[in-house]
Amino acid sequence: MAYGTSPSVAKLPTTLCEAYAAAIRNHAKEDAFAYKEAGQWVKVSHAAFAERVRKARSGFLALGIQRGDRVGLLSENRLEWTITDVALLSCGAVDVPIYGTSTGAQIAYIINDAGAETLVLSNQKQFDKAANAIGEMPQLKFIVTFDPVTITKPLPSRVKVMTFEELAQMGDRGVPSDFLDEMVRAATPDDLATLIYTSGTTGDPKGVMLTHDNLTFNLVANVERLTDLGPEDIALSYLPLSHVYERTVMNVFVYSGVSMYFAESVDTVAQNLMEIQPTVMTSVPRIFEKILAKIEDEGRKAGGLKTKLFTWALQTGREYSRAKCRGEVPPLLSLQYDIAHALVLSKIKNKIAPRIKFFSSGGAALAEDIAHVFSAMGLSILEGYGLTETSPVITSNTKAENRPGTVGKPLRGVEIKIAPDGEILTRGRHVMRGYYNKPDKTAEVLTADGWFCTGDIGELDADGFLRITDRKKDLFKTSGGKYIAPQPIENILKTSPHIVQAVVVGNGRKFPGALIVPTPSTLENLAREAGITSASLAQQLEHPKVLDFYRQEVERLTPHLAQWEKIKNIALLENELTIENGELTPTLKVKRRVVDEKYKDKIDAIYGQERAATT
């Protein structure tokens, strides 16, 4: 069946179903989507995508999925994720995304809380996790798998397992000519579109109820901001679609006609970036930190005059970007920047992302210094701000108005204000309906007049740009009664090429300390200089010369901190904090309570050395 031949949908969409129908009708690209298979990029046209959505929708309807039914979706990023998402919405159903990193117990909790009778999942790994927890999901009736799986142990007779292809065949009974019209009629703006369970840094996850109006309002408002997006653009997608940030990006880009290329994995992002040379891309601060660390490492390795030129160019770029933001670029600095850009900075950009229009950053705070360095290279990072509960974008920077260190101005139709205690409040059509089955939790964050309490501390500057200080619940108080905001300090520490991760600790203690994960190459060099290469990793991390180097690095990076904020002592960790080990959320936020418990001995050691406390 041919798609993309009907008249364009002139009005703005009011549901995600309308948005995807409009995208299919208005665009006819051969690479609407693409994914890697057997080392080659496989391109999927809008017409082929629509046909696969139609078949999946028919299959779900044949399975008995009805309007308002909740369906679990457990998968890594892949084309089938988006096909399933759109197919379920086209049934009037509510999809319930589950992170691919979830454990069996977490899967069972979400399926039970959502009341889902069907679970769609990707592969054998995800199937095994779900199968092992099948006894904890008594209402589950169907499991649909993208890849064929092997059932290694008997499942309850109530559970039927089928492949995605079998699902499509089951429902494929002819080709309705009005499929897109049926799709448009499947939902109304007030209908629930998705239940997204917040990963959370504490407690059980809560199911955030987002309507079609919530998500479509955010889609349209972002399209208005990103005026230069169009069918000529290519995006590389790697952030989890289970998170509302990347999912909204997907909605915005597909509606705008942007080609969506799925990265093979997080580990292949750099390689895929070079292969397809995208014009737009979303990411999280951790990736930008890694890119900059790699750039600086290569600059140091160049040696001699090349290293000196590189260091000068990067510093000149930083100063130029900061001066440009202030609107005060001295003529000499402008000339120096032109030279630095021509000799060094432009070459770095051409190596990393020669065609990029902009990067979008979200999920966590981006260090201001990183934004300035990328800007100097001609790589704009547009930082925004939002939460799952706000569909998600509240504010964002744009290419025309990009102020590093802030998260931009509110979207059209979004209200924000700062409460007396500094908490950011927001109101508008982007705010969730509430937490599923948790009216008490909903009442804690939604006021009677519609303001959502974000839990973030921030401030608005004179021009209306929002600056985030920290999470309200992350603030801690020293035993001396001084409040510490850990995130800004951590972001500063992570700008060091010698530091992979940093977590500021010290709740109820005499002073703030820090847990630091050292850069492996730096640790290797320090061990060689100290003559301890044969020592164990744990012994290297506790060697006085290694610790002194990192104490000095912390002091070098934080001279501007108030006395009570200064890091007085540190401990070095052997391994990076990870999602898999439960130390980070799927959006790479630190689970501070977990870290405090897991590394209690390390933290106690920080405060067991009184020498540090009195220096």
UniProtKB/TrEMBL annotation:
<dbReference type="InterPro" id="IPR020459">
    <property type="entry name" value="AMP-binding"/>
</dbReference>
<dbReference type="Pfam" id="PF23562">
    <property type="entry name" value="AMP-binding_C_3"/>
</dbReference>
<keyword id="KW-0436">Ligase</keyword>
<dbReference type="InterPro" id="IPR042099">
    <property type="entry name" value="ANL_N_sf"/>
</dbReference>
<keyword id="KW-0443">Lipid metabolism</keyword>
<dbReference type="InterPro" id="IPR045851">
    <property type="entry name" value="AMP-bd_C_sf"/>
</dbReference>
<dbReference type="InterPro" id="IPR000873">
    <property type="entry name" value="AMP-dep_synth/lig_dom"/>
</dbReference>
<dbReference type="InterPro" id="IPR020845">
    <property type="entry name" value="AMP-binding_CS"/>
</dbReference>
<feature type="domain" description="AMP-dependent synthetase/ligase">
    <location>
        <begin position="26"/>
        <end position="436"/>
    </location>
</feature>
<dbReference type="Pfam" id="PF00501">
    <property type="entry name" value="AMP-binding"/>
</dbReference>
<dbReference type="GO" id="GO:0016874">
    <property type="term" value="F:ligase activity"/>
</dbReference>
<protein>
    <submittedName>
        <fullName>Long-chain fatty acid--CoA ligase</fullName>
    </submittedName>
</protein>
<keyword id="KW-0276">Fatty acid metabolism</keyword>
